[in-house]
Design goal:
The chain is mostly beta strands. It has helices spanning 32-39, 100-105; strands spanning 3-10, 17-27, 45-47, 54-56, 61-65, 70-74, 116-117, 123-127, 137-141.
Length: 143
């Protein structure tokens, strides 16, 4: 089940208070439209109704796709918080790895065997799409 939260936000440009809908968790199987918006990177777009100011919202959430068999805890900017697990994923095994070598030991296929530098000086690496049901997944570490 997806968990929706409505928040009041202020436009940083004009100061207008508006409602914004965010999601603490998203279940791709139950909400294919949310899945489409996550994958097209439009779910986090916000535009002020008064002055047309645009912002991409960033917040932690839990994304589950039971059909593909994966769960992703999204924590933009490494904010250190984690989304709370939902009832539907209690049976999944959680594995924490500290580096790419440990990820490879778990049987995850990698494109990058060692991290490289990407945009803004972040260290990045890509998982092979065959390891993530056809999704090219980038891991990013900012200092």
């Amino acid at each position: 089940m997806s968990t929706e939260i409505e928040k009041d936000i202020l436009c940083p440009q004009c100061g207008q208070s508006q409602k914004y809908r965010l999601y603490a968790s998203i279940n791709a199987k139950e909400n294919p439209e949310l899945k489409r918006r996550v994958l097209s990177e439009t779910l986090f777009d916000w535009r002020c109704k008064r002055c047309n100011y645009f912002a991409a919202m960033a917040y932690s959430f839990l994304y589950t796709d039971p059909e593909a068999g994966y769960i992703v805890c999204v924590a933009p900017g490494g904010e250190g918080r984690t989304a709370q697990p939902t009832q539907e994923i209690q049976s999944y095994t959680k594995r924490v790895v500290k580096n790419l070598a440990e990820l490879k030991e778990k049987g995850v296929r990698l494109i990058d065997q060692t991290p490289r530098y990407g945009a803004g000086g972040a260290r990045i690496a890509f998982l092979h799409p065959k390891a993530t049901h056809g999704v090219l997944l980038e891991l990013c570490e900012r200092k």
